[in-house]
């Protein structure tokens, strides 16, 4: 890879880049061309040991300094990320294939938002005082210790920051393992944090496949595990963490419903459906991939949707005009094509798309199926690609039952002009993140996470603080101690 800001080695440990070429090589492939742009090496047991040792050694002193000082470093890192937004966005595009048009406004910027937000909050973290007559209790909000972050491949910069920022604000150290598919961006986050003044050892990045993640999760030095990934991986990681009674945050997959009532503003509903199905080529966990459209407006909705999808600019992700990029990998392209075949075989009506785009890279047409029924595989399983399933409905109670009839509970959306109905529907959704007349907003100020199989815990907002800190109660007796004998 010849890009100027490329990371200079596979791992970042104890404040520096570290290489160990004995680890299994992992080729980094640019999804737009299928060409290898870099090679990193999976962490060997020696690298895993170095990272955990460094984190353990650095954490206590970090927790002991004031929140104001910790926060200042995080805010400085946010500033550096903003100044380097262009370079970081280009790297994000190399890593994931997402168009620069997206990465330049979403990835490093939302990472910087998280660093800035928790940088501001670090100084406000306190316990409380509880009076018990003349005696009293105070609580101390303490760090958990060493946290492990394990990332998915769709938002490598953002995930590294969403986990790192609250962890560091609370006084923890972190060892982060990116997805093997997108290993580059988290290294730059580590580099920037240390440039901003983060003491060595507090934010380490090591590469590897599932087994490296597995070794981190089971290590006795680790107190908390935060995973962004699929539900099957979540089950494994949660179980492994449970064996060690470790804290967990699980941000997992979804098959979220979006309900478009007959009184909805169709243009806005189409915009929401586009954002909730085709942004990042559909590789977003909270996507509203089951779009229930009232039969009264279904054909008008589909017609306008098809027209708008015709305006997608598919091509070179580095071209600022491009609005739709490739899938992240050949493997993901094949998985999604498999689902498209299943949709056709099960009798869904293919409205638009449905095929890979010939040529280099892992490009796929934005795809819409209509007349989808609840039992079809494309309506039940997470596809994680640009495939929208449109389902019919006529009755609110009926559509709510169908919307909630899934093991997942990550997100859900409703489009309607009826205010009472909008809030009633939002209250009825079994999902952690709900949208009224919008879709897929994810500002750092709002808690984000799933119900049911979609997750445990919340990222972002003050809620994340609860998942990166613990309370210690200290009882103080002012009078004599009474004992029975
Ligand atoms: P995976 O679940 O395959 O992997 C997630 C991460 O876990 C990767 O870094 C992976 O390593 C690692 N891993 C795999 N097995 C283990 C194991 N046994 N122990 C420890 N770590 C392990 O997800 P993808 O990377 O394919 O990402 C897509 C999935 O992520 C989708 O299902 C999506 O819904 C979900 N997701 C959820 C989000 C949320 O916030 N709820 C946000 C974004 C994505 P490696 O892949 O390198 O082997």
Which tags fit this structure?
6-stranded mixed sheet; 20 strands; 7-stranded mixed sheet; binds NADPH dihydro-nicotinamide-adenine-dinucleotide phosphate; 485 residues; 21% strand
Query: What is the averaged pLDDT score?
Result: 97
How helical, in percent, are the residues?
25-40%
Instruction: Say which molecules are bound, naming each kind only once.
Output: NADPH dihydro-nicotinamide-adenine-dinucleotide phosphate
Output the radius of gyration.
23 Å
* Extended strand count: 20
Catalogue the unreliable spans: none
Give the strand content: 15-25%
CA-based shape: globular
Strand order, biggest sheet?
14-15-16-13-12-17-18
- Biggest sheet, in brief? 7 strands, mixed
Q: What gap, in angstroms, lies between the N and C termini?
A: 76 Å
SSE-based structural type:
alpha/beta
Q: Number of helical segments?
A: 15
Written overview of the protein:
The chain has 485 residues and is of the alpha/beta class. It contains 15 helices and 20 strands. It has helices spanning 45-64, 67-83, 85-96, 100-121, 156-169, 185-195, 210-218, 231-243, 266-275, 298-309, 330-345, 377-380, 396-404, 419-428, 463-467, and strands spanning 11-13, 16-18, 25-30, 35-41, 129-132, 135-143, 146-150, 173-177, 203-205, 222-228, 247-251, 257-260, 290-294, 349-352, 367-372, 387-393, 411-415, 433-436, 455-456, 469-476. The strands form 5 sheets. The chain has a 7-stranded mixed beta sheet with strand order 14-15-16-13-12-17-18, sandwiched between helices. Strands 9-8-7-10-11-19 form a 6-stranded mixed beta sheet, sandwiched between helices. α5 (156-169) links the parallel β7 and β8 (173-177). The longest helix has 22 residues, at 100-121. The N and C termini lie far apart (76 Å). The model has no long low-confidence stretch (mean pLDDT 97).
């Amino acid at each position: 890879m010849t890009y100027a800001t490329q990371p200079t080695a596979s791992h970042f440990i104890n404040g520096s880049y570290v290489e160990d070429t004995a680890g299994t090589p992992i080729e980094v492939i640019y999804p737009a061309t299928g060409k290898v742009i870099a090679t990193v090496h999976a962490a060997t047991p020696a690298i895993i040991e170095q990272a955990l040792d460094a984190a353990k050694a650095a954490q206590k002193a970090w927790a002991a300094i004031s929140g104001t000082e910790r926060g200042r470093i995080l805010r400085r890192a946010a500033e550096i990320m903003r100044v380097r937004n262009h370079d970081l966005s280009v790297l994000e595009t190399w890593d994931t294939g997402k168009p620069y048009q997206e990465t330049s406004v979403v990835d490093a910027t939302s990472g910087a938002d998280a660093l800035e937000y928790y940088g501001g909050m670090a100084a406000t973290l306190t316990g409380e005082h509880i009076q018990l007559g003349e005696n009293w209790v105070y609580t101390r909000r303490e760090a958990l210790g060493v946290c492990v972050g394990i990332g998915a491949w769709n938002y490598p910069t953002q995930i590294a920051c969403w986990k790192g920022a609250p962890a560091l604000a609370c006084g923890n150290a972190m060892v982060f393992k990116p997805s093997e598919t997108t290993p580059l961006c988290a290294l730059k986050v580590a580099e920037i944090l240390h440039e901003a003044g983060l003491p060595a050892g507090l934010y380490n990045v090591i590469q590897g496949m599932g087994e490296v993640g597995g070794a981190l999760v089971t290590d006795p030095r680790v107190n908390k595990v935060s995973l962004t990934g699929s539900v099957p991986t979540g089950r494994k990681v949660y179980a492994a963490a449970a064996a060690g009674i470790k804290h967990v945050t699980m941000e997992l997959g979804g098959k979220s419903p979006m309900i478009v009532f007959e009184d909805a503003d169709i243009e806005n509903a189409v915009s929401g459906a586009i954002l909730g199905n085709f942004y990042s080529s559909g590789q977003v966990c909270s996507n509203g991939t089951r779009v229930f459209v009232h039969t009264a407006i279904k054909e008008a909705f589909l017609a306008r949707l098809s027209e708008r999808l015709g305006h997608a600019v598919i091509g070179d992700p580095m071209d600022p005009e491009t609005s739709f990029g490739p899938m992240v990998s050949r493997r993901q392209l094949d998985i999604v094509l498999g689902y498209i075949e299943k949709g056709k075989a099960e009798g869904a009506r293919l409205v638009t798309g449905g095929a890979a785009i010939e040529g280099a890279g892992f490009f796929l047409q934005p795809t819409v199926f209509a007349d989808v029924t609840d039992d079809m595989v494309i309506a039940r399983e997470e596809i994680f690609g640009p495939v929208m399933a449109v389902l019919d409905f006529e009755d609110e109670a009926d559509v709510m039952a169908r919307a909630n009839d899934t093991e997942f509970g990550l997100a859900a959306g409703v489009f309607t002009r009826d205010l009472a109905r909008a809030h009633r529907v939002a209250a009825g959704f079994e999902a952690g993140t709900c949208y009224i007349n919008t879709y897929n907003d994810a500002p750092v100020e709002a808690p984000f996470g799933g119900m049911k199989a979609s997750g445990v815990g919340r990222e972002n907002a003050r809620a994340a603080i609860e998942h990166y800190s613990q309370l210690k109660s200290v009882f103080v007796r002012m009078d004599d101690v009474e004992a029975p004998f």
